Amino acid sequence: MATKGPVRTRSAASSEVSPLKGAPKMKVKLILPALEEASDPCFRPIKYSLFPPLGLMTLAAYLGPDDEIEICDEHVTPVATDDEPDLVAIETYITSAYRAYGLADLYRSRGAHVCLGGLHATSLPEEAALHADTVFVGPGEDTWPEFLADFRAGCPQPRYRSTVRTLHGAPRPRRDLIDASRYLVPNALTVSRGCPHACEFCYKESFFAGGPSYYRMRAECALAQIEVLPGRHLYFLDDNLLGDEAFARNLFAGMREAGRVWQAAGTVASVLTPGLVEAAAEAGLRSLFVGFETLDEAALLDQGKNHNVGRDYDEAVRRLHAAGVMVNASFVFGMDRHGPDVFDRTVEWAVSRGVETATFHILTPYPGTRLHARMAAEGRILTNDWNRYDTRHAIISHPHMTSGQLEAGYHRARRDFYSWKSILRGSLSRETTCERARHAAYAIGWKKLGPVWDTAVRLRRLAAARPALEGVLAGVPALRALLDRLSLPADSPI
Ligand code: B12
Q1: pLDDT at 90
Q2: Which of 229, 231, 327, 421 has the most Cβ atoms closer than 10 angstroms to its Cβ?
């Protein structure tokens, strides 16, 4: 822990005292600042109304029962800044860092004690410290309660660094503090943190430095948390839900009878592990985000993505489809081995294999990663404007492509993948009518119905859209079950 700095805070205590811990009652404001584009009233894409701010809901769970707590997610509602909280905690992502700093400066000038934490503050704590009374490095489950005790005692430290990594005994995120009607997927959750792998570009190694970088809840705790979530649909935001086979199998066994439909992320290697996605599908998995990253083996090796090397990507897609699971394929453009043909090759592979949705990125060196260190050493970093680190801009110089080529190729790939022609081709590559229908419905719903989603966001009608999402996700397995009941042959073309 860092040395004690001068404590500059409005008194944390009012005269009232929490009956539970004898702690002074506080007014606490937790903020997830938005990207500039997301706070523009004319720009409300559904992407920013998908998930509630789980990190802040997690931190809120450590506050006292009498504390006055407000969670502000600027992606869905403007932050009112005319208040006077005692304590302000702000989550920083790289692309919202400047907005986070602006809010931090404002609340500090009002005498609130301002805390900055999250991914970007962890990457660059010295930069964050220019705007905060206290900076948190790493996950908050150990440091935040420690800070709260210090703060209530009047001796908060300027820096807290996480070292203890466990989710055992962690309180459940405070879901009661968010307005579920503002999110398409209020049931976002995590049951693990980090990932067992260490890719060169990933935020994980630096974020979890100083302790284990992959840890999980006990399966029974995860199941108990899931059991109380209302509705049917879940979204696991874990980096790699399938990363520990034994944990995953226990979790899926416990979820089998629950009738949920859910989405998650995993690796190609875990998809190819015999029986694992099949067990996940039986438990309700209907769409998996998979980090394919690149079709080029040498590029995978350069990026330390060794667990993808030598894997049969076609087989991974087939396995998922056979289990009734849609594929959200993640690809990264701009690795050193890529040439200007990488965009079309990648899109062609994904469309021809019937991949339903794809997420494309331009290789981005987040500060703190091995990739950033290498690029800095090679003098290839073009800008430190964090607003541009959104994986849509070229941040590093490339040996075979100009920045313009990279950015144009990225935009073309997105456009081509989600063109009507590609959606039609992709869905026609599927074998049965219901698979084709689900493919088309999911891809069209996600990428072609923007204005409908925006209207639902503005009218706060996202809850009404949830059954449609669940229906599309449940689609193929539900129809298969019906065919079974009707005793139609398994290879029926329906
Ligand atoms: C959900 C999500 C989103 C949501 C964000 C909104 C939301 N509601 O959270 C959406 C879909 C909008 C999104 C968009 C993007 N995302 Co995103 N997203 C995620 C995801 C999958 C989960 C985040 C989460 O909930 N984690 C679980 C919670 C419990 O953890 P947490 O938020 O980190 O909070 C903990 C700690 O960080 C800490 N903490 C956080 N804040 C604070 C504050 C204080 C005071 C303290 C004490 C502690 C603390 O305590 C919490 C408990 O331990 C992560 C991957 C991941 N697994 O984290 C990527 C991730 C955060 N996204 C990433 C990126 C790059 C983006 C985009 C830029 C990419 C793009 N091209 O679309 C955009 C832009 C985001 C923006 N607004 O700036 C990167 C971030 C890299 C970086 N260094 O910042 C990640 C890590 C994915 C990755 N593997 O690269 N994203």
Answers
A1: 98
A2: 327
Contact 170, 139 (CB under 8 A): no
The pLDDT value given to residue 9? 39
Q: What confidence tens digit (pLDDT) does each residue in 436-445 have? A: 888 888 888 8
Are 124 and 367 within 8 A, CB to CB? yes
Radius of gyration of the chain (CA): 23
| Rounded Cα distance, 439 and 258, in Å | 25
* Residue 176: partners with Cβ closer than 8 Å, 6 or more residues away: none
CATH architecture of 27-161: 3-Layer(aba) Sandwich (3.40)
Q: Are 52 and 72 in contact (CB under 8 A)?
A: no
CA 156 to chain centre: 30
Tokens linked to 461? 């009608």
Q: CB of 55 closer than 6 A to ligand 1?
A: yes
- The pair of structure tokens assigned to 265 is 């992320």
Residue spans of the domains in the chain: they are 27-161, 184-423
Please state the atom number of ligand 1 nearest to the C-alpha of residue 188: 25
Instruction: Give the model confidence (pLDDT) of 279-314 as tens digits.
Output: 999 999 999 999 999 998 887 777 888 888 778 899
Phi, psi at residue 91, to the nearest 5°? Answer: -90, 130
> Could you give phi then psi for residue 80, rounded to 5 degrees?
-80, 125
**CA 54 – ligand 1 centroid, Å:** 9
Q: Report pLDDT for 41.
A: 65
Q: Which atom of ligand 1 is nearest to the CA of 391?
A: 71
Atom of ligand 1 minimally distant from the CA of 144? 47
**Domain 184-423: homologous superfamily in CATH:** Aldolase class I (3.20.20.70)
Q: Structure tokens of 76?
A: 């869905």
Beta-sheet pairing, 134-137 with 113-117: parallel
pLDDT at 481: 55
Decide if 139 contacts 122 (C-beta within 8 A): no
Give the E-state strand segments of 19-133 in sequence order.
27-32, 68-73, 87-91, 113-117
Which residue's CA is the closest to the ligand 1 atom numbered 23?
237
Q: Is the CB of 35 under 6 A from ligand 1?
A: yes
**Residue 324 near residue 385, CB atoms below 8 Å:** no
User: β-strand 192-194 against 214-216: which pairing, if any?
Assistant: antiparallel
**Mean pLDDT (whole number) for 70-86:** 94
Q: Which residues are registered as beta bridge partners of 331?
A: 293, 360
Reported confidence tier of residue 352, pLDDT bands at 50, 70, 90: very high
Report how far residue 305's alpha carbon sits from residue 301's, in angstroms, rounded to the nearest whole number: 6
Q: What is the pLDDT of residue 477?
A: 57
